[in-house]
């Protein structure tokens, strides 16, 4: 999880192209009323350019509502920031949580305020049903998904593709059967893997599974309505093995694939140019630039190709929740859920909105427009990162659960059934712990 | 830690008992004054030692949420859960191997530095790693053990040595297309069809190599003339950038693959061989049989030696122990050197006069005389090794953390690193404490003996 969040944080910084000036012109001044609003404290993980962009949006809110908002960044570990403040009764009024699991945990502890009617109306008008459900715990709506990270991207080196005479594929079959062999023929190793970081492997799995088994099964797997030993899981693993089992497709063979972490795998593609493609989310942009590539020119990405009928769209992202009874907090949430706020935010770059009514044209660059387009197209079939919703012992722990088991699979992809059984055992154990907590 | 508390209490009681008989004479300070002076230390010990230990022990009897009493279940889990069991096993390896190796290396350094001129300089260098934090040492060794020889020092050394011993093959990774009429055989590739001397030149198209990686001597591929009783042919890189060339045909931009070893087989035996020229052509003259098999030898394609997978599941623990030795050898050396300086020279001289060899002196005189110091170093290291955490945490990559796991790391991991099971974490902490206690008792006894002397 640690690395994961770092990856996300980097991504946010990378996409950022600051153009704050546009905003100031767009907003009208209200004259100088004496201050009679509330003071709000908002906490989120964003720093640097991302923080500045968000503060621009907050400034808009201040002008419209007359409240004052202070921003505080939580550092990398949101739970570590919020925990002590909750104990002390000094929680921020609004917090952005990086995982739905954290929201569920706080909701069960009674630390969250349910969304007001106004917020719900706004969410209802602007968000597809899936995001509303994601923000709901035990029938109460607590969260609004505000800022998304696109996790269905395969990054590639256009030069390598040109050299091999191939185009980004539309289907997984084309990727495995057409693009990869053509690259290999041209002497380019197709993939750099980041297998040393287990979360990259769970992201692979989620994309294949979502596209192949469909969103309903994805939800059922999450809710444990179907077991991990289900045929759909085994099939998804077999599909992954089409790449993972072929040493010649991965830089450094199997050892290299399991032994390389993020962002070294990005360097393998854009720095040392040892491989042609690397799978991960939009935050790869930051690492690609660190490796010396220019995003959009010699670092490009295509959306994860369709394994089944539809291409998958897996998102991660931050969910806004109210942690105090302050009414202005609800006002802020309602404001942030509007297309206006989303558009203003989008115009500054470095931001992808799950809000359905934020126009694609609002994004400043072609790359982000493409991401927004794919989110819009997916509509209700979009899904939040599966492993981030699972109990952390199963979905987000270095060296155990899903991370370690998928690493075992990458190391030896011979027996998908056995891996599925291992996943089921881990899931049962982790959910076992979780359900004990529920009973209390 | 518990032992530490005991000694403090003893110390606390002794003065008051001693002063009691003299109380009538009012020579010493009143007993309550002693208690007042002791109070801060007692409060400190209680708050920061005894209470946490007690609370951990209590907490270890509850489940993850802390609400349900589970008895000794968490302790059973330590021995039954595969992950904690691996951690336990690794800890045993650490405790057995690391102190022995560190003490041995320290002893060797100490004995050798006694004899050299720049002893102090050498000692400073060996001791230097102690000045670096474990975290930094971990980062350093993570890099040293990196698989890629361009990044990792250990593999850079190994591959350099290996490349000097045997020259790397020219075309690793090159292979024919599936339908090119060649099939893999013994690491090389064999032409499906048999070839008769004097027939048309054989074409051996290969792909899978970036055109830029061809040797600089490579020239555009050509087709040689057929020759009487000879097999001729061309080996070339059948790939034009942009995949624009025609497969199996020599296109204008395609170059030959020089220095490729071509074997001609009569049955299973190699009858003759040739090496391709800059344009990829080869000629194998003076062949008498009717037909032959043509093979591209395996050594053209051997993958380069990529070094050892240090951070793979099997070697990761020894690799980390290696880093630990690097850090601690200096510490052992300094303590042992001090012990060495205190050895009576006469004993060594007497042994030498009696005709003992240097090895015998070392083995029979130096080591026995040093044994108290060696024991101290060994036990101290054991205590440190039991709680090893940072090196493993930093050096082991995510995929092998489970294989490299140790108890202290597992304690942190289950408590804060994901599962948030502080019940099991506390059980592991208490278990570690129990393991450390024998070594602590030993140390404390030794301190007392020293003081008694």
From TrEMBL, chain A:
Q: Which InterPro entries match?
A: Bact_solute-bd_prot1, SBP
Report if keyword rRNA-binding is assigned.
Answer: no
The superkingdom listed in its UniProt entry is Bacteria
Q: Which Pfam families match?
A: SBP_bac_1
Keyword Transport included in the entry's annotation: yes
What is the annotated signal peptide range for this record? 1-28
What UniProt keywords are attached to this protein's entry? Signal, Transport
Identify the PANTHER family for this entry: ARABINOSE-BINDING PROTEIN-RELATED, OSMOPROTECTIVE COMPOUNDS-BINDING PROTEIN GGTB
Family, similarity comment = Belongs to the bacterial solute-binding protein 1 family.
Report the protein name in the record. Answer: Extracellular solute-binding protein
UniProtKB/TrEMBL annotation, chain B:
Major site of localization recorded for this protein: membrane
Q: Keyword annotations for this protein? A: Cell membrane, Membrane, Transmembrane, Transmembrane helix, Transport
| InterPro entries xrefs | MetI-like, MetI-like_sf, UgpAE/MalFG_permease
Q: Where is the ABC transmembrane type-1 domain?
A: 88-443
Q: How does it sit in the membrane?
A: Multi-pass membrane protein
Asked if the keyword Membrane belongs to this entry, the reply reads yes
- Location of this chain's protein in the cell: Cell membrane
Gene3D superfamilies hit by this protein: MetI-like
Instruction: State which residue ranges cross the membrane.
Output: 32-53, 92-112, 124-145, 323-344, 365-386, 424-444
Q: Where is this region: Disordered?
A: 1-21, 165-188
Taxonomically, the superkingdom here is: Bacteria
Q: Family assignment?
A: Belongs to the binding-protein-dependent transport system permease family.
The molecule here is called ABC transporter permease subunit
**Species assigned in the record:** Lipingzhangella rawalii
């Amino acid at each position: 999880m640690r690395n994961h969040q770092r990856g996300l944080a980097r991504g946010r910084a990378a996409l950022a192209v600051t153009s704050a000036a546009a905003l100031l012109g767009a907003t009208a001044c209200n004259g100088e009323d004496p201050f009679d609003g509330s003071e709000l404290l908002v906490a989120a993980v964003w720093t640097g350019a991302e923080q500045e962009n968000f503060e621009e949006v907050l400034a808009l809110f201040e002008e419209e509502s007359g409240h004052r908002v202070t921003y505080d960044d939580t550092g990398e570990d949101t739970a570590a920031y919020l925990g002590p403040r909750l104990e002390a009764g000094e929680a921020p009024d609004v917090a952005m949580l990086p995982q739905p699991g954290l929201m569920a945990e706080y909701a069960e502890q009674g630390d969250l305020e349910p969304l007001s009617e106004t917020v719900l109306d706004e969410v209802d008008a602007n968000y597809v049903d899936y995001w509303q459900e994601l923000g709901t715990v035990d029938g109460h709506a607590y969260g609004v998904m505000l800022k998304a990270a696109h996790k269905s991207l395969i990054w590639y080196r256009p030069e390598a593709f040109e050299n091999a005479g191939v185009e980004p594929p539309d289907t997984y079959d084309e990727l495995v059967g057409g693009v990869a062999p053509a690259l290999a023929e041209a002497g380019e190793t197709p993939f750099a893997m980041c297998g040393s970081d287990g979360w990259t492997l769970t992201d692979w799995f989620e994309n294949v599974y979502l596209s192949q088994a469909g969103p309903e099964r994805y939800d059922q797997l999450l809710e444990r309505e179907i077991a991990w030993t289900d045929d759909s899981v085994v099939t998804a693993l077999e599909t992954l093995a089409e790449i993972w089992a072929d040493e010649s497709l991965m830089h450094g063979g199997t050892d290299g694939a399991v032994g390389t972490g993020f962002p070294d795998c990005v360097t393998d593609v854009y720095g040392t140019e040892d491989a042609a493609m690397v799978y991960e989310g939009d935050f790869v942009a930051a690492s690609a630039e660190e490796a010396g590539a220019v995003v959009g020119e010699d670092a490009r990405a295509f959306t994860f190709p369709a394994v089944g009928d539809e291409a998958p769209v897996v998102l991660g992202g931050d969910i806004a929740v109210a942690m105090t009874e302050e009414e202005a907090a609800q006002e802020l949430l309602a404001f942030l859920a509007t297309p206006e706020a989303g558009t203003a935010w989008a115009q500054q770059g470095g931001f992808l909105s799950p809000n359905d009514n934020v126009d694609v044209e609002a994004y400043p660059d072609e790359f982000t427009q493409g991401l927004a387009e794919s989110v819009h197209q997916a509509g209700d079939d979009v899904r939040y990162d599966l492993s981030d919703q699972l109990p952390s012992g199963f979905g987000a722990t270095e060296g155990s659960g899903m991370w370690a088991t998928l690493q075992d699979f990458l190391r030896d992809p011979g027996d998908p059934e056995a891996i599925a059984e291992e996943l089921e055992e881990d899931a049962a154990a982790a959910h076992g712990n979780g359900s004990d907590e529920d009973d209390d | 830690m518990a032992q530490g508390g005991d000694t403090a209490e003893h110390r606390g009681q002794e003065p008051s008992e001693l002063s009691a008989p003299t109380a009538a004479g009012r020579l010493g300070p009143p007993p309550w004054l002693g208690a007042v002076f002791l109070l801060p230390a007692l409060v400190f010990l209680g708050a920061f030692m005894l209470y946490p230990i007690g609370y951990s022990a209590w907490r270890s009897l509850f489940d993850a949420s802390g609400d349900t009493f589970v008895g000794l279940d968490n302790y059973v889990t330590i021995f039954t859960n595969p992950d904690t069991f691996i951690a336990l096993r690794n800890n045993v390896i650490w405790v057995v191997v690391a102190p022995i190796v560190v003490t041995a290396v320290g002893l060797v350094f100490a004995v050798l530095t006694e004899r050299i001129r720049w002893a102090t300089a050498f000692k400073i260098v060996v001791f230097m790693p102690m000045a670096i934090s474990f975290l930094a040492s971990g980062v350093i060794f993570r890099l040293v053990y990196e698989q890629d020889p361009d990044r990792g020092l250990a593999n850079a050394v190994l591959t350099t040595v290996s490349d000097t011993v045997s020259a790397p093959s020219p075309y690793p990774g090159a292979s024919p297309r599936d339908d090119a009429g060649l099939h893999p055989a013994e690491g090389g590739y064999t032409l499906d069809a048999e070839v008769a001397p004097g027939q048309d030149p054989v074409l051996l198209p290969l792909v899978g190599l970036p055109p830029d990686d061809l040797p600089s001597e490579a020239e555009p591929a050509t087709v040689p003339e057929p020759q009487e009783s000879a097999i001729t042919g061309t080996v070339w890189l059948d790939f034009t950038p942009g995949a624009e060339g025609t497969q199996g045909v020599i296109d204008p931009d395609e170059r030959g693959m020089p220095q490729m070893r071509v074997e001609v087989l009569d049955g299973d035996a190699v009858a003759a061989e040739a090496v391709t020229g800059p344009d990829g052509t080869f000629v194998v003259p003076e062949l008498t049989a009717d037909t032959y098999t043509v093979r591209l030898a395996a050594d053209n394609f051997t993958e380069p030696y990529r070094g050892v997978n240090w951070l793979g599941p099997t070697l990761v623990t020894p690799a980390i122990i290696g880093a630990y030795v690097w850090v601690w050898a200096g510490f052992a050396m300094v303590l042992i050197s001090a012990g060495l300086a205190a050895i009576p020279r006469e004993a060594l001289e007497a042994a030498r006069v009696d005709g003992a060899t240097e090895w015998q002196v070392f083995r029979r005189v130096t080591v026995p005389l040093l044994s108290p110091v060696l024991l101290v170093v060994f036990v101290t290291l054991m205590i440190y090794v039991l709680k090893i955490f940072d090196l493993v945490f930093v050096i082991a990559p995510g995929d092998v953390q489970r294989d490299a796991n140790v108890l202290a790391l597992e304690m942190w991991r289950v408590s804060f690193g994901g599962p948030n099971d502080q019940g099991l974490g506390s059980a592991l902490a208490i278990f570690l404490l129990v393991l450390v206690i024998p070594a602590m008792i030993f140390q404390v006894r030794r301190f007392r003996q020293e003081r008694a002397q």
